[in-house]
UniProtKB/TrEMBL annotation:
The keyword Transmembrane helix applies. Residues 18-377 form the Acyltransferase domain. It holds the Pfam family Acyl_transf_3. It comes from the Bacteria. GO terms for molecular function: acyltransferase activity. This is Acyltransferase family protein. Keywords: Acyltransferase, Membrane, Transferase, Transmembrane, Transmembrane helix.
Length: 396
């Protein structure tokens, strides 16, 4: 991936973007802590702590609007550079597609067949739907026949990997045209849309606001691939935005210049949201609640908050994280493996530890330590077994 300095000037068309590598690692790290948090909130999840309640939800809502959008954007950037690098070689595009099928497809297969199965087992056990006996359950889990009130086999948190692979396969036949567009009229259009901090922050959110108004009410998020149209609209658009912005100097210059405004907007909108939540009953009783367009304003503000947070992260990473390190090299190789393993570790540990009634904080700390230790230990074991590496998301 190309690298930009703080002014956005590209020094080397194929030098690695260490800032985005760091953001990818940080985003996956946040997902691990976010999923530990899902064990404690009132929202639906696979298993729940005996201490579950609303206390952690405000902290979860800080990152919920932008955490996955950030990952899909960075994935779009990575696909642009990887596909461009492969293009000049004979059969390069086909080899690129095969490499993505290998890199992402094998972990999906093993994940659904083996790694995700314990999540479904302990979910059904905590709900009191099945009796103890994992091997019996696993045999039923792998059957096409649906024997349980949840879909089996399932990909659960690996939906991100599934969707990413599908998006890559969708654009693969059009990569030459997309490359031409990204270097021509697409680049000029992006220069207009992102040609300054205000336009960068306000114009880019427009399609996402439209999706939220028109699609989300009819197509709630399911992560089932088929029929998940609102989610696809959001994720595919941010993915393609990353693709077109990857080598666009003007975009990254605007990101750097937008840092102060984006930070003010992110903090200000979050503060406004916290105030409105605190005054919820008063607002509901006021005439403001009956203004027809108030819902549109709320959607626009939430979308602006999410995009402002992403721009702040991009700008800070460009300034302070765009350098290599041994830690980054290690984590870049490990992070997909961590992602594949972490939720199963959380579910198994959470299901068993919450029965001990240790208290909310001791339980949280213990589950967090076990999850991180399990990810690190799993990676260290699997990377030493060549046959298993590609199945668990570890490059050769």
């Amino acid at each position: 991936m190309a690298v930009a300095d703080t002014t956005g000037a590209f020094r080397d068309a194929y030098k690695r973007r260490y800032d985005l590598d760091w953001l990818r690692v940080i985003a996956f790290g946040l997902l691990i802590f976010y999923h530990v948090g899902m064990f404690y909130v009132t929202w639906g999840w696979h298993v729940k702590s005996v201490y579950a309640g609303p206390a952690a939800e405000p902290f979860m809502l800080l990152v919920n609007p932008w955490r996955l959008a950030l990952l899909f954007f960075i994935s779009g950037v990575a696909i642009r550079f990887a596909s461009d690098k492969a293009a000049p070689e004979p059969g390069g595009t086909l080899r690129f597609v095969r490499s993505r099928l290998y890199r992402l497809g094998l972990p999906i297969i093993l994940g659904m067949a083996v790694i995700i199965a314990p999540q479904a087992y302990f979910q059904l056990r905590q709900a009191g739907i099945i009796e103890p006996g994992y091997l019996v359950f696993w045999g039923n889990y792998l059957k096409v026949e649906q024997l349980y009130p949840i879909i089996t086999p399932t990909w659960n948190h690996l939906w991100y990997v599934v969707y990413l692979l599908v998006y890559i396969l969708l654009i693969a036949p059009f990569l030459p045209a997309l490359r031409w567009l990204a270097n021509g009229s697409g680049a000029r259009a992006l220069s207009v849309v992102a040609g300054g901090p205000v336009r960068l922050l306000l114009l880019i959110i427009i399609p996402f606001v439209i999706y939220e108004i028109t699609l989300s009410p009819s197509f709630p998020t399911t992560h089932t691939l088929i029929g998940d149209w609102a989610n696809h609209a959001h994720r595919f658009t941010i993915f393609m935005l990353g693709y077109f912005a990857a080598k666009h100097e003007g975009f990254w210059r605007s990101v750097d210049r937008a840092l102060p405004l984006a930070a003010v907007l992110a903090v200000g909108i979050w503060g406004l949201g916290a105030y409105v939540d605190a005054q919820e009953e008063m607002i509901a009783a006021s005439s403001v609640a009956r203004i027809p367009f108030i819902g549109v304003v709320e959607i626009a503000l939430k979308t602006l908050y999410a995009w402002s947070c992403i721009v702040v992260l991009f700008a800070l990473a460009q300034r302070f994280l765009n350098r290599p390190s041994k830690m980054l090299t290690y984590l870049t190789g490990a992070v997909l493996c961590y992602y594949i393993l972490h939720q199963t570790i959380i579910v198994i540990a959470g299901y068993n530890i919450t029965k001990l009634h240790l208290g909310a904080w001791p339980e949280f700390l213990l589950i967090t330590v076990i999850t991180i230790g399990g990810c690190v230990g799993g990676y260290e074991i699997f990377r030493r077994i060549p046959l298993l590496r590609p199945w668990i998301g570890i490059k050769r």
